[in-house]
């Protein structure tokens, strides 16, 4: 194979340019390892890990420099893979639980960002980089069009098949009961034992306390809460906690 | 600038080769976003997040396909950045604590992979992909040469300066007291209130129970445990838990 001088120079420049601008080509260089990250991406990696492990404490918005990072994390599939692996660990654990015949073996699910995805809403609001707007968010909720996550549907169906009693426990208001039930059914969920929403006496309560109180009532009825799935630590901590808790990823918002 | 035909071809091939084998060059292509990951790296990302959030439950070894991923995560600096951000969150929180004058404002630290790094040991043992060997690990411990982490030294010194009483609580055996104290001092730590190690009555106890019991005694002495820092969930959970817990990264091993 021979090159003329000018065509070889042109080809060299074009090839180098293609490699430099195309991450799909350049990432081939390290197919088994992670390529080094920019300092912003690297900071946002650390931030997301700190948020997911509850090290960041209460945070109001995604750091502005991480909006694009969160967008890519969600839209390019790593978010789904992360959720999917949590679902697999939850199913593997659920299969080890020996269920009684009294229907008292319970599994608790949160709803928003656990069973139903509001990503479409957050996509239009900076992926969590804009402050939470209660009015706008509730306008979205009452549309009742939130889809399920593939991973949560897989987990939910597996637990139903194994015979767990499903308890839904959400920070949504009692006034949103019908639309929430319809949305859940449309998204593919079915056969839950009960849907617990915030009533009059729960207004203004911190999520951890409200959810702990609700779980506590369930336990007092004789249920064993084997598992709990939520995207917030306030879904999982407090008292009457489950034997195993599964924190599903949510890099968009934090509820104390 | 002109090229001879042969030198231009040679240069083109060398340049292309350099770009393809060098992730530092190829990653320039996407300085603000994360380049796409290989499916192995993507799985290992999900696995590490699941491990750090305690979703993976008890695990014995790093998945074999993730050995290289964990090696790179640690050796290429993301691990240090992740720990550093946790330290920053811990310091920010510590500054909000109003300390009394009675010296009863406590902060608990675990030792291994929290204050002292055994990464040199794990580097020689597959970064956690080989089963834990108690004999070999203890041979390493009694050398007493484990360094501190930059982030843990920064956090420790900041807490000392703020006036916290430091309590060290480790799963190491009482027989390793002297070498542990010497190692800690050599690594730059100083002025702790006490070092709690596993005594005769603690043998065989699960880490969560042993550590909860020890914290409980501290609380009964009148201390308030404002913060707790550990690389294991068993350092942080159970009873007599701290007001805020900080889970520092450790993708190499899990202690139930």
Automatic annotation (TrEMBL), chains A, B:
Q: Which UniProt keywords apply?
A: Glycoprotein, Signal, Storage protein
Q: What are the TM regions of this chain, as residue ranges?
A: none
Pfam families, A to Z:
Acid_phosphat_B
Q: Which domain of life is it from?
A: Eukaryota
Its signal peptide is 1-26
Q: Name one GO molecular function term.
A: acid phosphatase activity
- What job does the chain carry out? May function as somatic storage protein during early seedling development.
Instruction: Kindly give the PANTHER family that the UniProt entry links to this protein.
Output: ACID PHOSPHATASE-LIKE PROTEIN
Spell out the family assignment given in the record's similarity comment.
Belongs to the APS1/VSP family.
Q: What is the protein name stated in its UniProt record?
A: Predicted protein
């Amino acid at each position: 194979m021979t090159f003329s001088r000018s065509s070889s120079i042109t080809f060299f420049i074009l090839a180098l340019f293609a490699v430099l601008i195309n991450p799909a080509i350049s990432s081939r260089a390290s197919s088994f390892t992670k390529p080094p990250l920019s300092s912003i991406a690297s900071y946002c990696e650390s931030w997301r890990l700190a948020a997911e492990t509850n090290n960041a404490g209460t945070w109001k918005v995604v750091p502005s420099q991480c909006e694009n990072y969160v967008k890519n994390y969600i839209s390019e599939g790593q978010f789904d893979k992360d959720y999917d692996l949590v679902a697999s660990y939850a199913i593997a654990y659920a299969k080890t639980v020996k269920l009684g015949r009294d229907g008292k073996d319970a599994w608790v699910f949160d709803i928003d960002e656990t069973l139903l995805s509001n990503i479409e809403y957050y996509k239009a609001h900076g992926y969590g980089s804009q402050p939470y707007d209660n009015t706008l968010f509730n306008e979205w909720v009452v549309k009742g069009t939130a889809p399920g996550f593939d991973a949560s549907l897989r987990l939910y169906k597996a637990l139903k098949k194994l015979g767990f009693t499903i308890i839904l426990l959400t920070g949504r208001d009692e006034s949103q009961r019908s639309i929430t039930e319809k949305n859940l059914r449309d998204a593919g969920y079915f056969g839950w034992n009960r849907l617990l929403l915030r009533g009059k006496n729960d207004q203004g309560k911190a999520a951890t306390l409200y959810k702990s109180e609700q779980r506590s009532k369930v336990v007092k009825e004789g249920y064993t809460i084997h598992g709990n799935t939520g995207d917030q630590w306030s879904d999982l901590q407090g008292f009457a906690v489950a034997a195993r808790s599964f924190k599903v990823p949510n890099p968009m918002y934090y509820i104390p």
